[in-house]
Amino acid sequence: MSDSTTQDSADSSLEVNVEMDIRDSHFIYTQTVNASKKTLDYNYKRCNGCGICIDVCPANAIEAGPLFEIATGMDAPPVIIDQTKCTFCGMCASFCPVRAIRMDIDGQDLLENPDFSKLDSKVVINEKCLPCMLCEKACPQEAIKLELTFPTKEEVAPFKEGQKGEIAVDMDKCNFCGMCAYLCPAFVLVDREPTPDDPVPFQDLLIDLDKCDYCKICEDFCPEDAIRVEGKLETPVPKISGTVTIDDEKCSRCGWCKAVCPYDAVDIIKPFEGEIELIENRLADCDPVGCHGCFNVCPAHAWYVPPDKKIDVKKDYCIYCGACEKACHVYAIDVKRSGVQHTEVRDLPWSSQWKNAINAIKTGDRSRPDTDRRVEMEVVGPMHPEVHEIDLREKPEHLDEIRSRLDNLMPMLCDAKTRYEWERHNSGSVITRINRIDKMNGNGLSC
Description:
By secondary structure, this protein is of the alpha+beta class. It has helices at 52-56, 67-71, 91-95, 134-138, 153-156, 179-183, 217-221, 256-260, 293-297, 323-327, 351-363, 399-413, 416-423, 427-440, and strands at 2-8, 15-23, 26-33, 36-43, 62-64, 79-81, 101-105, 108-109, 122-125, 144-148, 166-169, 187-191, 202-207, 227-230, 242-246, 266-269, 272-278, 303-304, 312-313, 333-340, 373-379, 385-391. It has a six-stranded antiparallel sheet. A two-stranded antiparallel ribbon has the order 5-6. Strand 1 (2-8) and strand 2 (15-23) form a beta hairpin. Helix 12 (399-413) packs across helix 14 (427-440).
């Protein structure tokens, strides 16, 4: 499906063409100005309806869809972009916290252009990382990839049959890092579904004695000194090594990885600062099992049902996008943003608009251009035009005359024959009638 509009400039050499296309879950808007091309790609399946794009848009070109229904299962775009209003400024793409809107200018991603401010949030794995399995398994967005590079036990000490010994794990010391299970098949980690109040993705560590030959490698290998083995060490113990990488496209900066990491190896800069509160007196009608709206839209997976409450949110995970507030049909959630982490707003002609957008993310109040004003140019000399700004919110000098002429025209405009001619684009007949009325009223003007 595609749609296009062409806007002709007063300068005949400048042609602006806007097209819209739909490809699967993507609404793709393209603006071509002569040889320059801007493409706005809105993936509605990725959008959670937070509405930040609506707040920042300087042209009022974005509006919300049926968010309550979408949050509980309706397949529809959470926001709707009017391509006839869109100026392709890129603010929606720059400040979308879930990267549902992307924009490129002549093939370059807007987020890679330093002339445009953008959200500056990230997750960094620091030098304290062991690494271990916990963050990869706990991440609700599957944005973390672990690659271990040390050799396994089978590679350094193949299994020996008939060995005797004893082995035990001190579960008070074990933090479920999972390194022993990667090293040796005798260790078995029991998975569990992590929850916001308990993000550890394992519930137990078992030992398969049929696969243990008491080589004692695991005892010296364990970073928590939690394993004891009665046996004989005959092989050098491998050193834990590997890398943890973050997929920036998937990562929501929620902080599950930081919460589960036992080594303080995760640093997070969230896109927004703020507060989130539940409005207790409105929770009577909340049905977290039947509705699940806040669960469904939250990019941080911060909502859960505790044993002693109807519903709760893990505030440490919240990124303050506000999607849950807009999805709650009982209006029981209050999200306030007090800060925006963004790159530098450079001193460029459009910088004031970007500052307004950043302020709107915090306040929800967007300062937009005054569309009630116009500028007229009067030529007072061959090379010296004089510009006059007219505020149309003030009473024009000829307002009474304009009202009088409109009053005279209204009967004609309400006439069935005139409407019939107008709807069939027979403007000549309509103009003739307008001129006749003008002359009858002594205006001496013609269309």
